[in-house]
């Protein structure tokens, strides 16, 4: 099986398994996944709700809710150190300082009784040893960096006084305040309209380049992935089912689930269709996964072997991997016509969608 990730990565997740004990049984939310993030790049985790994307990020941050939840196995190597073996005091020094997280819903992540300024300066004082004046200056600086006007006055305000897009900018400002090496962005454009989505994602990409930070984007939105990700990991039922560059995933998807995700998203470079083509059925019960491929009950290409034996993640060409017994027999997706991007790279035309959501 060729599912090992590269050595020398900034973040190297190996065979990670995270589970939750419930009244209905043990939920294997993350079931033996391996992926990596290299310095300065943007990697995406893509899949439906409940596939294990967010739990993967919470596992990295050491924020899986106990006692019901626990990391049952694997390694999370960050700069060569296994985060799972570090004492809690060491993890506190890493959170916010070296790894920062932009949570999915700002209003449930921001403290409603603390001013915006205090929620930024606290991290600077703890992690960077700043004085109160230095931390305040840094807070003003990062608010300006993320495009929040009149930063000095806004420091004295509370989260409810900010719009949805501004709250998301605030979350990014908090994440950037200590200049981390890695940013985990969990559905950073949830509940935002398409125009604001594009603004937020363009901002994150530009700031990531400016600060030299690597980014992990967790999303179900393939428009986001096409425009902003360098490499993509597609998750289903707690496992990686396909991995490759953004170009490989869009031009030549080799897993039926990835094909289904692509067909359910509107495209500006294809003829108008009356209806989108959604994936039929429901995600599986993670306490009672089928014996073979977890996607087989919803798959139009499944063969008998799919229902009897779980496919390994293996190469379908170069660095492109797929966990599918019929990967090589799937219909070819027509090649996307290349368009030049702002940095001179040729990219598929679907990347011009600027994050169109489903």
UniProtKB/TrEMBL annotation:
Cellular compartments annotated: Cell inner membrane
GO CC terms, sorted: plasma membrane
Residue numbers spanned by region Disordered: 333-358
Membrane topology: Peripheral membrane protein
Keyword Nucleotide-binding: yes
Keyword vocabulary terms for this entry: ATP-binding, Cell membrane, Membrane, Nucleotide-binding, Transport
All copies of domain ABC transporter, residue ranges: 11-262
MF annotations from Gene Ontology: ATP binding; ATP hydrolysis activity
SMART domains: AAA
Annotated Pfam families: ABC_tran, oligo_HPY
An individual GO BP term: transmembrane transport
Family annotation (SUPFAM superfamilies): P-loop containing nucleoside triphosphate hydrolases
Family of the protein in this entry: Belongs to the ABC transporter superfamily.
Name assigned to this protein: ABC transporter ATP-binding protein
């Amino acid at each position: 099986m060729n599912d090992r990730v590269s050595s020398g990565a900034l973040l190297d997740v190996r065979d990670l398994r995270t589970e939750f004990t419930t009244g209905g049984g043990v939920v294997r939310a993350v079931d033996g996944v391996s992926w990596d993030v290299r310095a300065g790049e943007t990697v995406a985790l893509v899949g439906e709700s409940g596939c294990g994307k967010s739990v993967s990020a919470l596992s990295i941050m050491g924020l899986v809710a106990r006692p019901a939840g626990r990391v049952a196995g694997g390694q999370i190597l960050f700069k060569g150190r296994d985060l799972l073996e570090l004492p809690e005091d060491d993890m506190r020094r890493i959170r916010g300082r070296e790894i920062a997280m932009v949570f999915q819903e700002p209003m449930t992540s921001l403290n409603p009784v603390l001013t915006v300024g205090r929620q930024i300066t606290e991290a600077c004082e703890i992690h960077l040893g700043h004085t109160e004046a230095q931390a305040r200056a840094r807070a003003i600086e990062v608010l300006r960096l993320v495009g929040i006007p009149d930063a000095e006055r806004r420091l004295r305000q509370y989260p409810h006084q900010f719009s949805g897009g501004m709250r998301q900018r605030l979350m990014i400002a908090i994440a950037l305040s200590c200049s981390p090496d890695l940013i985990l962005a969990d559905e950073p454009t949830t509940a935002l309209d398409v125009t604001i989505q594009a603004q937020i994602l363009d901002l994150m990409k530009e700031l990531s380049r400016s600060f030299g930070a690597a980014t992990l984007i967790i999303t179900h939105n393939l428009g986001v992935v096409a425009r902003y990700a360098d490499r993509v990991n597609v998750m289903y039922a707690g496992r990686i089912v396909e991995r490759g560059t953004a170009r490989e995933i869009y031009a030549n998807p080799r897993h039926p689930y990835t094909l289904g995700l692509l067909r359910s998203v509107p495209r500006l470079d294809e003829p108008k269709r009356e209806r989108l083509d959604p994936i039929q059925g429901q995600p599986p019960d993670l306490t009672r996964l089928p014996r073979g491929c977890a996607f087989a009950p919803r798959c139009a290409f499944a063969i008998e072997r799919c229902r009897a034996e779980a496919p390994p993640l293996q190469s379908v060409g170069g660095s492109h991997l797929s966990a599918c017994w019929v990967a090589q027999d799937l219909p070819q997706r027509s090649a996307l016509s290349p368009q030049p991007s702002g940095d001179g790279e040729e990219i598929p035309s679907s990347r011009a969608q600027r994050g169109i959501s489903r």
